[in-house]
Specification:
The structure holds two protein chains of two kinds. Chain A is α/β, with parallel strands linked by helices. Chain A has an eight-stranded mixed sheet, with helices on both faces. In chain A, a hairpin with a 5-residue loop joins strand 8 and strand 9. The radius of gyration of chain A is 22 Å and the shape is globular. In chain B, strands 11-10-12-13-15-14-20 form a seven-stranded mixed sheet, sandwiched between helices. In chain B, strands 3-4-2-5-6-7 form a six-stranded mixed sheet, with helices on both faces. Chain B has a four-stranded parallel sheet with strand order 19-18-21-22, sandwiched between helices. In chain B, helix 19 links the parallel strand 21 and strand 22. Classes of the chains: A alpha/beta, B alpha/beta. Chains A and B meet through strand 1, strand 2, helix 2, helix 4 and helix 10 of A and helix 1, strand 9, helix 9, helix 11 and helix 12 of B.
Chain lengths: 338, 613
């Protein structure tokens, strides 16, 4: 769909990037610029809207329209912008604190309404900008500055929250996997409706290795399942592991070629199934018992808020007798004083 | 009950309808008001209802009232005290007798004065028997029984029958005021077009009440109020909330932009959102957000993307929006924030009026965060000030607070319909493709920045809540730059004084003994007070403010011309405090009230007279 030949460089602003060396954000911005170049939408059609946090500095580094807003509110501001001008491609940037703690209400309601925006959720399981407090996604028991004896609260799984809020699109990637993140982002942008993309991002300073159980070289191939619509759920170094339903109706990992298991027994990914049951099971898989699901996990068509608003306006305009303010002012009960 | 009817010709009459909150008193009052307006009287109304939708039946807490003031001259207030009080039960009488003049006509539904209801209203002895009504012209009518009788062949169930009894009272009042029932009959034909049985029952009872009054000569007094001499033209009835909504729509049309309203329901502001939601035909985009913060933030997003954006709320909602107001100030985006003030703090008195959000509107934000504040002063001019709020926001690239209040919002008045062609132009500050765009470069006169809408080729730029480098808009922590930008934001709002009208004075503009100062929704009461005091020979003038931040440029010069300044407001003295900070050389006497109710002319006169001594 390339309308204009861009390179990722065209999307870089002249501002010096101030994220810490080694921060996962560097990889994510590379992925975003790659995806934007490949999508080929006019540069001026992009509005990158962020909240507050390390990741929310993002718009300043992009040579697009950008709005760095206030803590937690990016989803609301992005929703307003999309409804004001449907031609814009809105990319919302939020961290796990921004989107799921202070902005949790806007996050779930944007998803429920299905406003056509892409929410890029940087999940590093920590508050980085305020220097190391636990977040709504921090694993139970983790020691941070505000949980010196370990956290005692249950974390959110963003995918589960998204599906619970009637999410129609959820995908997951890893900061260092630029190719996968860019591919997912392209699908997310092309999806009509709210698309949530969670990126497992590493904070080298305050939560280094939070995702290492999934991302470490030595076992990443055995602990990452990259889902593709219509393809069997196969993973592992030798592409010999897969998922199927157990006799009790739960997911289980099986090895192809052992105990009579063949490729035909392996579940085939259907991202477009409106029934979220299996998607929910997939987003909840945790290492090391299971591989972590990556790729586009759920991608279901439904009407979007902004298109329904547009259609309703057109319909009411068509049937109403009031076409301008002068009509309205003089409508209904009026009388003349002579 | 058989005395001769006497006709009293009056300049103005005040009627108060009261009953249970389910008795339809608001509708009854509104019908009377519309009918009088159609006849040619000037009209002002005051709905007074509880926060509970259906409070326990028959209790004082559940009483709903609606006061209508009609006159042959301009009426600027709903009137202090009623000439006629309709009370549909003992609780309504108990709650409203204090608002009736001595010797007022009091129409009671005696069927509702059962032992149980009398007790529930908090009386130990029935007021019909203890002589407490001796000073009033009491008209006891078996309204319930007569309504049932009138509808005995209607086939309607008991509940539907009893719902019509307010129309019996209204029919009597129409006879008493020599008004026609036609307007209300037509109203029912439209309202219950799909339920003709209900429409005809209401019309039947209305007629029954009218005929009853005529036949039995129950009403000794019969009022006649001649049509008012008011400006010629086409009129309609409008409430403050509707006028606010229409003013915002008018600004959008003048600016050539779609209107976006991000809001969350809150009493008493929600009717603005209702009204705008109807206007898909004018392209209005209403967005019922998940909370107050979502309301203003979607509006900020819409403004960023190029719509004329607004958010509507009341005091507690404004508190929730304050951080986002700061973002709009920092990003210098046009936005109108409507605050329909109610009694506070906290949940306070949601359905009652107050002017206690002024300091919140002026100062309730973190940092040095100036916002223009303007206030409407009549239900009708909510239209003009909503329009002006939009014009200022768009031309000066700033969020603007428009203050109205529960009294203006729910009150209705006949309104001379304006013509769109007479409204001033709104000139947008849009950057175009090819411009050498600098996000924070400013107009040398107004200091307003230019709006570059996302989607415009070549103008890609970033804005946000962090301090901006002057002109370029990049992030800046340079100490001197923060000083420059803070000063610029302050000065930009101050310079709005160059584009607003000068303050007017009613009475003696050249100066004199006393200047009464007010702002916002108290205009009608202050104007009437000053007018009456002047007729009594007192040297009193009125400066009533609509532009609060910035103040009109001639404010200081006006204040210097009077020996005494008395600031009257429905709070503990917030405007007086503000004026003291602006012009400390003057002394400000104060008249304040926080009772959830408007001033009365009687109490204003008394207090101003006392301060004049």
């Amino acid at each position: 769909m390339s309308e204009i030949n861009y390179t990722p460089k065209d999307f870089k602003s002249d501002q010096e990037i101030r994220w810490c060396p080694g921060c996962g954000d560097h990889g994510i911005i590379t992925s975003v610029q790659k995806a934007m170049a490949e999508l080929g939408y006019p540069k001026e059609s992009w509005a990158v809207i962020s909240g507050i946090g390390c990741s929310s500095r993002f718009p300043y580094y992009m040579n697009t329209y950008g709005f760095h807003t206030i803590h937690g509110r990016a989803a609301a501001i992005a929703s307003g912008a999309k409804n004001a001008n449907r031609k814009l491609n809105i990319l919302q940037i939020s961290g796990d604190g921004d989107a799921l703690a202070i902005g949790g209400n806007h996050f779930i309601h944007a998803i429920r309404r299905n406003v056509d925006i892409t929410i890029l959720l940087f999940n590093n399981e920590i508050y980085g900008l305020t220097k190391g407090q636990y977040s709504p996604t921090t694993k139970l028991g983790t020691k941070t500055k505000t949980s010196p004896y370990g956290t005692i609260e249950h974390p959110f799984n963003p995918g589960e929250l998204c599906i619970g809020a009637q999410g129609k699109f959820f995908a997951r990637s890893i900061d260092t996997n630029v190719g996968l993140t860019a591919e997912i982002l392209k699908s997310a942008v092309e999806h009509k409706g709210t698309a949530v993309v969670e990126v497992l991002q590493n904070c080298v300073i305050f939560a280094d290795g939070a995702h290492s159980a999934v991302t470490d070289k030595e076992f990443k191939e055995d602990r990452q399942l990259v889902l593709e619509h219509g393809k069997p759920m196969i993973f592992g170094k030798n592409k010999d592991k897969g998922l199927r339903f157990s006799s009790t109706g739960e997911l289980e990992v099986v090895e192809i070629g052992k105990n009579g298991v063949t490729e035909k027994d392996i579940l085939v990914h259907d991202a477009r199934n409106p029934n979220p049951f299996l998607h929910w099971m997939l987003v909840n898989m945790k290492a090391p018992e299971f591989p972590v699901a990556l790729g586009v996990i759920r991608e279901v068509e439904a009407h979007t808020y902004d298109e329904a608003l547009d259609e309703q306006i057109e319909e009411v305009k068509r049937i109403s007798k009031i076409h301008c303010m002068e009509d309205l002012l003089n409508s209904g009960d009026t009388w003349e004083v002579k | 009950m058989s005395q001769e009817t006497k006709v009293i010709e009056k300049h103005d009459v005040v009627i108060r309808f009261s009953g249970d909150s389910g008795d339809g008193m608001q509708l009854t009052g509104q019908q009377f008001s519309d009918t009088a307006a159609l006849f040619g009287n000037d009209v002002a109304t005051f709905p007074d209802y509880p926060a509970e939708i259906r409070a326990p039946q028959g209790t004082v807490g559940g009483v709903s009232g609606f006061q209508v003031h009609i006159g042959e001259e301009q009426v600027k207030t709903p009137g202090d005290y009623a000439d006629v009080l309709v009370a549909m039960n003992p609780a309504a009488l108990k709650a409203n007798l204090r608002w009736a003049k001595k010797a007022a006509t009091v129409i009671l539904d005696v069927d509702a004065f059962t032992e149980k209801h009398v007790e529930r209203a908090g009386y130990t002895v029935s007021p019909l028997e203890d002589g407490s009504l001796a000073d009033y012209n009491v008209i006891p009518v078996k309204i319930t029984d007569l309504t049932i009788e009138a509808l005995k062949e209607s086939g309607l169930d008991q509940k539907s029958v009893l719902r019509c009894k307010n129309m019996f009272a209204l029919g009597m009042i129409y006879w008493m005021f020599e008004e026609s029932v036609e307007h209300t009959e037509a109203f029912f034909d439209i309202k219950f077009g799909k339920k003709p049985a209900i429409a005809s029952a209401n019309k039947l009872v209305l007629k029954a009440g009218f005929n009853y009054a005529a036949n039995v000569h129950a009403l000794a007094t019969h009022f006649k109020v001649a049509p008012a001499v008011i400006e010629k033209g086409k009129y309609r009835t409008i409430t403050g909330n509707k006028a606010t909504a229409w003013g915002l729509l008018a600004a959008a049309e003048k600016a050539g932009l779609p209107l976006f309203c991000g809001s969350y329901p809150i009493t008493p502001a929600t009717d603005i959102l209702h009204e705008l939601a109807l206007r898909r035909d004018l392209g209005a985009k209403t967005y019922q957000a998940e909370d107050e913060i979502g309301g203003i933030c979607t509006a900020i997003g819409a403004s960023y993307a190029g719509n004329f954006a607004c958010t509507t709320t009341s005091g507690p909602g404004l508190a929730l929006k304050s951080e986002a107001c700061g973002l709009a100030v920092m990003a210098e985006l046009p936005l109108v924030i409507v605050d329909v003030q109610r009694g506070g703090p906290s949940t306070g008195l949601p359905t009652k009026t107050e002017q206690s959000d002024l300091l919140q509107a002026l100062y309730g934000r973190n940092g040095e965060c100036p916002m223009p504040v303007i206030a409407a002063s009549t239900s009708g001019n909510c239209f003009d000030y909503a329009f002006m709020a939009g014009k200022i926001a768009l031309e000066h690239m700033t969020p603007v607070v428009l203050l109205t209040d529960g009294f203006l919002a729910n009150g209705a008045q006949p309104w001379l319909i304006p013509s769109m062609s007479n409204l001033p132009e709104i000139k947008l500050r849009l950057a175009k493709e090819g411009d050498d765009y600098k996000p924070y470069a400013r107009d040398p006169e107004t200091l307003a920045r230019t709006w570059a809408l996302p989607g415009t080729k070549g103008l890609e730029h970033r804005i946000g809540g962090l301090e901006k480098m002057n002109i370029t808009g990049t992030i800046s922590y340079v100490p001197e730059n923060h000083q420059v930008m803070t000063d610029l934001r302050e000065e930009k709002v101050a310079r709005i004084a160059d584009s607003i009208p000068e303050q007017e004075v009613f009475g003696n503009p050249e100066g004199g003994e006393v200047l009464v100062v007010g702002w916002g929704g108290t205009y009608g009461h202050l104007y009437t007070t000053v007018k009456e005091m002047r007729a009594e020979g007192k040297d009193v003038s009125l400066a009533h403010f609509n532009y609060i931040n910035p103040l009109p440029k001639n404010t200081e010069a006006i204040f210097a011309r009077y020996k005494k300044i008395i600031v009257c407001e429905l709070n503990l003295g917030q405007f007086a405090k503000y004026l003291k900070s602006k012009y400390p050389q003057f002394e400000y006497k104060q008249v304040n009230k926080v009772a959830g109710l408007p001033f009365t002319v009687v109490e204003l006169k008394e207090k101003i007279n006392a301060l004049m001594k």
